[in-house]
Amino acid sequence: MRIKTLTIKAFGKFKDQTLELKPGLNLVYGTNEAGKTTVQTFIQGMFFGFYKPYRKKKTYSEEYEKYMPWGQFDYSGSLVYEVDGREIRLERNFLRAKDSLFIYDNTTGKIINDQFKYDGVIRQHLPLGNLGMTSVIYNNTVNMRQMVHDNESGSQDEIRDSYIEMQNSSGIEINFKGIARRLEEKKSNIGRSGQSKSRIGAAIRERDELQQLLKEAEAAYAKVAENQEKITRNQKMMKRIETENDYLSQESVVKRKKELLQSYEKINKLEKENNRLSKIIREDQIYEDYNYKNLEGLKAISNQADRLSDQMDYIEKEMADASEHLKTIRQKEAAKRSSLAGHTLEAITEDYELFKKEQNEVAAVDKKTNVIINIISALVALLGMGLVGLANMGLLGTSQGIENLSLTVGVTLAIVGVVGLSFGISETLKKRRILKEKQLIPIQEEILAKYQLKDGPSFDSYYKKVVRNQKELEQMQNEGELLIIQHSRHQAGYEVLFEQRRGIMRDLERKLAQYEVKSIAEYAERCEKAQQLEELKIRFNGNLRLLENLLETVNGGKTDDGQSVWQKASPKSEELLSLGKEIARLEGENSALTDGIGLPVEIQETIKSLDAQIQAFDTEIKACNAALEILETIQKNCHLESAPELNKNIGDILETITQHYKGVKIDETMKLKVVDPKGGDFKDAEQLSAGTMDQVHFAFRYGIGEQISREMPFILDEPFVRYDKQRKTQALKLLAELSSTRQVILFTCDDDEENLLRSLKAPFHKIKL
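That's the AAA family ATPase sequence above. Prediction below.
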């Protein structure tokens, strides 16, 4: 990816200005307050806007106010960048309440916002969202601002997670952050028992309140039953008094005779009606034991079974989702394995080691050299010929013996030197022949042909890809195991609910069998018939009492000798009034006792349901905690696997710059420590000098940026202010090398960078503000 054009319509001090950037190294020069930092911030704002990260609602950062143009009603610009051969144009309005972002295909002019990820907090699409680049990662890796070392709050975790996911990319949407976030959301959704407003806390609070209400309801209904017995006794007494009053209220014998005649007719009618009622009562006597209290109990049991069924349906859906997700992972595992074309990592590793072994033998032959033997042999030959020459010229003295000895020694040394030189040349030619023969032996060609590769470097790339593929398969297997654990825990919860429901249904079936019915509806029909039976009995008993009263009235109208004994009497109205008041008082007390209080059996069933719900919440929280522990273990293992490579890369960069420090350690939280080359102790970057601290952070951003995103441009604002010349030269050399593969934008106010780049003969494009 590279940035091509910046069009600053109104931003900070700039208005209607355009900058053209080139591939490779762009050196943006400007004096103090020329606007270098403004341009760097404009690039950041075009990609991400000015919003504070980690917020649940849109909140503007301090940079929004800092770079708002003075005395203008415009705050906007555009940026064109190229990625994967496609030109994208961004047009952004920064003004609050009017902020907007339009993303265009710069070739066709079509709006393509919907092709990028959407952020629901700021309600905008993210131009770099598809590259996994957030504002936090951008500002702590590829965008190096002036003299800033502290990471934003929460950025270390985000950089760490992004780096680990990049090293263990499996192509699956679910990653460490996603899984952990969903598990924490599920736990948060359930809450803790001590939180009264959480789901589990509300269930516990409701259960405790119902238990207290159950005690009150049981006491109230016990008092109601006691009052009802009193009401029944008083009603019977009122009936008897009313019957007496009917007799006592007669005023004349004539009226009495008429009443007697009417009583006879009533007696006949009542006897006929009671005979009919007696027959119906005998036939319907089988419904006598059915009542609405038992019906409510049966309905409560059925409702509890229905609630458990709802919970089981929810768990079945969760299990189905987990199974579908597991199926997707298995399909991707199969795709990864199929990419190996039937080869295994072990077989490929064995062939790779064999291939490297042959290459090492060639290198070993290449390292063996006969240069020393050839030099020594030549020196010995020259020394021998020198002695022979001196002896022949008579320069060694007048003694004939000395001359002969020198001549003999000289000839001998010359012969030895010539023989040694011949041997060395012969061995050198032999080694060259061996190297020529060893360039690529048949077994290496066979290995390359086996994997359809053309040379050793391509085999190296293929082997690294296979190793990375194996790591991705292991990660998928770990995710699969997590899903299997979740599925097992859901299965266990489902089985518990299933057993509870089966026990409840058995209890319901037993009660229905006990009541000799097949369903609750049938029991309700029998309750209705039982109520009708009770009404018939009341009517039958009322008729009996009326018959008794009528017979008593008829038989009491005469004495044994036939004399009339009718007399006028006053009704017992005061006693009736007193009994009526007492009945009304008791009924009022019963109404007050049961007002707002449910049936105890219903409360008990609700408490049982809440206990089951609380138990299910506890099981789900334990499952989430277990999954989070496994995720933490996997994350630590991933860091242990990838940390050595990252430490080495950053250490190499730091050594290149400083020519002193080279050992670097990065812990799980992306905290960076430097190894003291003298004592081997760890030092925090903040313990070093200001210049060295700049260089440590430069090395970290350079190294981590290469690992997280090799596509993004590397943007630096005055990074070398506190560098000495030697370290600045090394850093510029690194940036020049980096610019061959990705775009680099370097802001500076000093000519020193330009001069050093020219001395390094490094190509660059200069832009002057």
